[in-house]
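> example.struct
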């Protein structure tokens, strides 16, 4: 399917920002790094990528608002559209030379995510989706995995590090998911985890305490790939609550059930 004008705008912005990230990747000793909080770094590369995305998307769609990791909320003249952008998801991976990081761009229209793009500059893979048009990895249509049993499924998650809350809760959840699945994986970039669920590489995913820019593009990718995504409470309010569960219909239901069971046992 030929890319739409909107997706061309998103793709061109992401690829321009990616060129700078690719140059900086692997040369972390040359990056000027400041500390935002425990184990939460913002690099010169991150800031430059966000500036490129802000300029390119603003030029292509004047008046759209923004919600960005570094800038925060930027009001636009057009109150119906907002870009939700993470210029570098997986900053810690990036700074340690681990090739698992992304540029993530979601477009919100009247409060609903209608388009998403997740690009990994290290692998040069681009995941895209628009409402009603399906999900794609580069030019290939993708679907969520077809496994119906949690026993056979690989589940991805995010592990809270130093300075993050809910360590004990996560360990309880992880122990229960480990005992009922084929394995648990931790990649270090939530947007990439969600893209891989959409592509059928992972069967499911859950995490707490995320931000809207971590999830926006991945949410529509999974929906357009035939999957299910919700907050940990089972509602479509994951961008507001920060908790998310994703998978195909059966895995989403089973994984949600395990997490609820764990919460009751706490």
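> example.seq
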């Amino acid at each position: 399917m030929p890319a739409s004008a909107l997706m061309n705008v998103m793709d061109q912005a992401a690829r321009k920002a990616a060129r700078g990230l690719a140059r900086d990747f692997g040369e972390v000793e040359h990056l000027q790094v400041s500390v935002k909080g425990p184990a939460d770094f913002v690099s010169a590369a991150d800031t430059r990528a966000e500036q490129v995305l802000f300029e390119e998307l603003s030029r292509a769609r004047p008046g759209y608002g923004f919600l960005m990791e570094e800038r925060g909320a930027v009001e636009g003249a057009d109150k119906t559209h907002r870009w939700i952008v993470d210029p570098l998801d997986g900053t810690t991976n990036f700074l340690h030379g681990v090739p698992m990081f992304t540029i993530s761009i979601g477009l919100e229209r009247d409060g609903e995510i209608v388009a998403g793009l997740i690009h990994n500059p290290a692998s040069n893979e681009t995941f895209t989706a628009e409402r009603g048009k399906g999900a794609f990895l580069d030019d290939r249509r993708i679907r969520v995995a077809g496994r119906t049993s949690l026993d056979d499924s690989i589940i991805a998650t995010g592990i809270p590090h130093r300075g993050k809350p809910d360590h004990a809760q996560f360990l309880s959840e992880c122990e229960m998911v480990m005992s009922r699945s084929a394995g648990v994986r931790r990649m270090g970039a939530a947007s990439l985890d969600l893209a891989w669920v959409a592509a059928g590489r992972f069967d499911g995913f859950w995490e707490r305490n995320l931000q809207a820019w971590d999830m926006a593009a991945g949410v529509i990718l999974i929906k357009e790939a035939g999957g299910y995504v919700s907050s940990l409470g089972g509602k479509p309010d994951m961008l507001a609550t920060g908790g998310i569960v994703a998978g195909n219909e059966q895995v989403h239901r089973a994984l949600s059930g395990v997490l609820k069971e764990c919460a009751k046992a706490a």
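> remarks
The domain at 150-265 is CATH 3.40.190.80 (D-Maltodextrin-Binding Protein; domain 2).
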